[in-house]
Design goal:
By secondary structure, this protein is α+β, with helices and mostly antiparallel strands. The chain contains 28 helices and 18 strands. Helix content is 52%, strand content 13%.
């Protein structure tokens, strides 16, 4: 069994690029080796730092297996003349295939040549495929450098490729592959030789490079706890970022003037963690200390610590200036200043939006069972949600939108439920239920925020297209869908509230296209279900969405419920086929424009015109359970809905066994088609069974 190691060395990659890049590199290389027939039982061993992507394989084949290549030659009539002698065409085929006449074989129609193709040495195969694998790597952003045309995330500086200790010669982006690697940029920049993965890893560690991201993670966590006076806040995202910012991580401690602790805590932690990649430190009681932990990649502890302290103090000093200036104003003052902030050229300013959010938040509160006191809280949250956009501190730290508004609201004595809603309005994941006043207020505000945005842009016909979604409308729909999963009390009928949002725009003089907006909204929601609910079978999801009925597509909770019911019932192919028959007949009749009752069909059926005992039996059942079924739908009782639809199976089968729907008599045909529509109406309470893929059909 043979060994391969590949190292791609480059300028420092952005931290967010590294993990995906090495995963893609390992997967792409494995796929190519497998396609070439030399992967064997080997699996990829990837390592990565900001300056290098490394992949090793143990257990490769040393040579491609020999294969027999089957080639079709001319037809028998063209291959031999009347005397049975080979024609020029056959002789030409033999020459091109590299075979003798005696090696040919025949079937009823053609001549065939079987040629044994010897496998190439694996080193040659790898030499051919490596440029292709590296060239296939894709990044969010890439660049060209020098005079080359190849694009990569950062300039490539060296390539190491060794197969069983031998260099694999190839060139990519003007760089020749060799057995040479390099150590840490500052501590050990000299080139060195490595011929295997184990040797490369050992030599790198001796030169201040830890190639294993997991070991760097362990070093960061252990060192951070060791150097800190208290407990460092080591959130996963920040640890991950530091893992891929460093090759030789070393934790150091720094401090900042205690006077800055008077700033709102989110300002301090955001400046440290988000902007400077530092870990804040807390004491045993959870109080923030004037201390941080920084993970350096090079330099001397004292010098790096001093530089970090200077940078952080400068940032805190700027924040303090804006905070002190903000203290001279109130949220009402900030709110009025939003008249100068444009929401959208065609949708007005943020002050106008604040009025819409206030009314829409209250409407949502009423729709979700709020009493007067909670409706007032929702209205207040909507009014002040965007007020902090004109605060100086938000201008300095834009990522703290909402958080600063929450801090200032508490400072002014606003109720904590409203302040919390302002804080989490951009992060619905913080809402875990619909059980407290604060959670309900926040949910209502977020729903209002997203519905207002969707109504405005979709009303202008500015929906997302392909990969383009400049107004984050898919994200808005995702927020709404996720919040609908908090429980029955959080579920709302989206379309009526969407209409309220459109009406609020109209009250302010903005002209929007309601029909186009609803069409686009249903399209956005359908796409979000597909993207979010990947564990659901595609046909089940399609059957549950009822895309032809926008009011149903726009009800995430009902779509979820139908998925659960369909997943249970789709296991019975005979039942699915039975439920599909009325749906198909109705669809066919509509397509042919045959008249029958389509709206409120059950009430329009002339029972005498059915002229069938089985039809009357089905009608009677539909009539008897109509009211209870609608009540079950309204209450979200999936068990009762399922039972009601299951009750229809036997009467439907007997009806089709004995009765022809498309009778020649117009009144009978009208009555029976209307019966099929009424039956379909009840079946669709579970879903569109005609969309399900049944095994064996």
């Amino acid at each position: 069994m043979s060994h391969l190691v590949v190292e791609l060395g480059c300028e420092e990659l952005p931290a967010t690029f590294v993990q995906k890049a090495v995963d893609d590199f390992a997967r792409g290389l494995a796929d190519e080796l497998r396609a070439a027939g030399i992967l064997g039982a080997a699996t990829a061993k990837p390592f990565a730092t900001p300056r290098r992507l490394i992949v090793g394989f143990d257990g490769l084949l040393s040579q491609q297996p020999d294969v027999v290549k089957e080639t079709r030659g001319p037809a028998l009539k063209a291959a031999y003349d009347d005397a049975g002698q080979p024609t020029k065409a056959l002789e030409g085929f033999c020459r091109s295939a590299g075979v003798e006449l005696s090696d040919l074989r025949k079937d009823d129609q053609y001549v065939w040549a079987d040629k044994k193709v010897l496998g190439k040495p694996s080193l040659e195969v790898i030499q051919e495929l490596m440029p292709r694998v590296i060239g296939s790597l894709a990044f969010e952003k890439s660049m060209r450098w020098g005079g080359g045309r190849i694009r990569f995330a950062r300039p490539i500086r060296w390539l190491l490729c060794a197969f069983d200790g031998q260099a694999v010669p190839f060139n990519f982006a003007g760089v020749d592959a060799s057995l040479q690697s390099r150590g840490h940029r500052f501590y050990a920049p000299e080139a060195f030789t490595a011929t295997s993965l184990d040797q490369l890893v050992t030599e790198l560690r001796a030169r201040f490079v830890e190639p294993d991201p997991e070991r760097r993670r362990e070093l960061i966590l252990s060192q951070a706890k060791t150097v800190a006076s208290g407990t460092p806040e080591v959130h996963d995202a920040l640890v991950d970022e530091n893992v891929f910012l460093t090759e030789w991580p070393t934790a150091i401690k720094g401090t900042f003037p205690a006077e800055y602790l008077k700033l709102p805590e989110p300002v301090l932690t955001t400046a440290m963690a988000k902007h400077e990649r530092m870990f804040p430190v807390r004491d045993a009681s959870g109080k923030l200390l004037n201390e941080f932990v920084f993970i350096r990649n090079s330099g001397q502890d004292a010098e790096v610590s001093k530089g970090c302290e200077w940078v952080l103090s400068a940032r805190f000093n700027d924040a303090k200036f804006f905070f002190d200036e903000d203290l001279k104003s109130s949220l009402d003052h900030f709110l009025e200043r939003t008249v100068t902030v444009v929401f959208s050229e065609k949708l007005g300013n943020v002050r106008q939006r604040a009025d819409r959010l206030a009314e829409l938040s209250e409407a949502i509160a009423r729709a979700t069972g709020a009493d007067d006191s909670e409706a007032i809280l929702a209205r207040r949250a909507g009014l002040y949600a965007k007020a902090d956009l004109t605060a100086g501190l938000v201008g300095e730290l834009s990522s703290l939108q909402g958080v600063i508004g929450s801090e200032y609201a508490l400072r002014e004595g606003m109720l904590s439920e409203v302040a919390w809603a302002l804080r989490v309005q951009y992060d619905p994941s913080q809402i875990k239920g619909f059980d407290t006043v604060a959670e309900r207020t926040a949910t209502r505000l977020i729903l209002a925020d997203q519905l207002d945005k969707l109504a405005g842009y979709l009303g202008l016909g500015m929906g997302p297209s392909g990969s383009s979604d400049p107004f984050a409308l898919r994200r808005a729909a995702t927020f709404i869908i996720s919040l609908s999963g908090l429980g029955d009390k959080a579920a709302v009928e989206i379309l009526p509230l969407f209409d309220v949002a459109l009406e609020l725009y109209a009250k302010q003089g903005f002209e929007l296209n309601r029909d186009e907006a609803v069409r686009l909204l249903a399209e956005v929601f359908s796409g979000r279900y597909t993207a979010l609910w990947t564990d659901t079978r595609h046909d089940v999801l399609e059957a549950a969405m009822l895309e032809e009925v926008p009011t149903e597509v726009l009800n995430p909770q009902r779509v979820r419920r139908r998925i659960l019911m369909l997943e249970k019932l789709q296991a019975d192919p005979e039942f699915v086929q039975t439920m599909t028959r009325p749906l198909n007949i109705v669809a066919s009749a509509k397509k042919k424009e045959i008249p029958f009752a389509t709206e409120g069909a059950l009430a329009q059926i002339d029972v005498a015109a059915l002229d069938s005992v089985e039809a009357v039996t089905l009608y009677t059942l539909l009539k008897s359970q109509e009211e209870s079924l609608q009540r079950s739908v309204a209450e979200g009782n999936g068990l009762q809905i399922t039972r009601a639809v299951e009750n229809l199976a036997d009467p439907i089968r007997k009806f089709f066994d004995s009765t022809m729907v498309m009778a020649e008599e117009e009144d009978i045909r009208f009555a029976r088609l209307s019966l099929m529509q009424a039956t379909s109406d009840q079946i669709l309470c579970v879903g569109d069974f005609s969309k399900l893929v049944v095994a064996g059909t």
